[in-house]
């Protein structure tokens, strides 16, 4: 790896529940779950990266990264995993007490990538989950690039430039509805401004 880091296991933390929504479907080309952690690709300001997160429950979380953006991606890992968020604190009530018992280790996470979050969200509008997963995978496979590092089959999300270089007809051919294709293109044209605003 080009960089590596380890964090202590946080108090009352559930890794797999917290990271479940980082992945869009079982065959997401950007995030791959493993029995002991996950792989995730990212675009950083200094370049692309692939991160392998491996967990030792109740002990530590280890991460290794490959690519030009390895160091930058590792700096974002605590946000991806919700490591710096506090455990939930809710007022006493039978319902909230049950939620805390069942999901007390869940933390909020943040990929810090507004463009990626919008791509995933736009593809999920007014369609079934299965269709959203399918179009996400097709979009990444067609317009994304192979990710750095040793994990075969992982890809980077398309850049705003790659999306802008595409056109509505090509996106529709990937199975994306016309209105969603137009919205994706609009977001690609203002991606830098959205990231700065965030």
How much strand content do the residues show?
A: 15-25%
| Category by helix and strand content | alpha+beta
What is the rounded Rg?
18 Å
Please, how many helices? 9
Compact summary:
With 198 residues, the protein is α+β, with helices and mostly antiparallel strands. Helices cover 42% and strands 20% of the residues.
How is the topology of this model organized?
Blueprint: E1 3-8, H1 15-19, E2 31-34, E3 37-44, E4 47-56, E5 60-66, H2 70-81, H3 94-103, H4 114-123, H5 129-143, E6 145-146, E7 155-156, H6 160-165, H7 168-173, H8 178-189, H9 191-197
Antiparallel strand pairs: 1-5, 2-3, 3-4, 4-5, 6-7
Helix pairs in contact: 4-8
Please provide a written account of the structure.
This protein has 198 residues and is of the alpha+beta class. The protein has helices at 15-19, 70-81, 94-103, 114-123, 129-143, 160-165, 168-173, 178-189, 191-197; strands spanning 3-8, 31-34, 37-44, 47-56, 60-66, 145-146, 155-156. The chain has a 5-stranded antiparallel sheet with strand order 1-5-4-3-2, with helices on one face. Strands 6-7 form a two-stranded antiparallel sheet. A hairpin with a 3-residue loop joins strand 4 (47-56) and strand 5. Helix 4 packs antiparallel against helix 8 (178-189). The mean pLDDT is 93.
